[in-house]
Amino acid sequence: MAVAGRVFVSLDCADAMPLAEFWAAMLGGEIMFTTATGTVGVRTDGVWLLAVEIPGYSPPTWPEADIPKQIHLDLAVGDLETAVVESERLGATLAAVQPDPDRWRVLFDPAGHPFCLTTVTPPDNPF
Asked: What kind and span of H or E run contains 12?
């Protein structure tokens, strides 16, 4: 029996709306709600993302561990180069360190969270 029926991924940030708009555009989702306390909810076909404003937020310093990443997203893409270009157009920044650039690319969202674009996916991937 499942304990929960829905997953929300919460991303801490300094400014919730730009982060929510970025992820809505990246994942083809839509902003569904905002709260007075600085949370913006984004619904996509695959997952709910919440951008949550945190006072004094500092982004991870990946790959250094001064401020470690607590979570990151891996996004399956059909064409790595095209996905990188579109991600940057939407506001992402390509990381200087790329451990395996032929298989995946590390980028940062507007709040500094690292995420990966990859063509290495499970066999049931629709791409």
From this structure: strand 8-13
- Count CA atoms closer than 13 A to 122's CA, side-chain side: 2
Sketch out the chain's domains with CATH numbers: 1-56 (3.10.180.10), 58-127 (3.10.180.10)
For the chain, helix, strand, coil in percent to 5 are 20, 30, 50
pTM score? 0.81
Write the secondary structure of 56-100 as one string of H (helix), E (strand) and C (coil). CCCCCCCCCCCCCCCCCEEEECCCHHHHHHHHHHHCCEECCCCCC
Q: What is the CA radius of gyration of the chain?
A: 15
Beta bridge partners of 33: 41
Taking residue 90's Cβ as centre, other Cβ atoms within 10 Å add up to 15
Give the pLDDT confidence of 13-72 residue by residue, as tens digits: 999 999 999 999 999 999 999 999 999 999 999 889 999 999 999 999 999 999 988 888
CA distance 19 to 76: 20
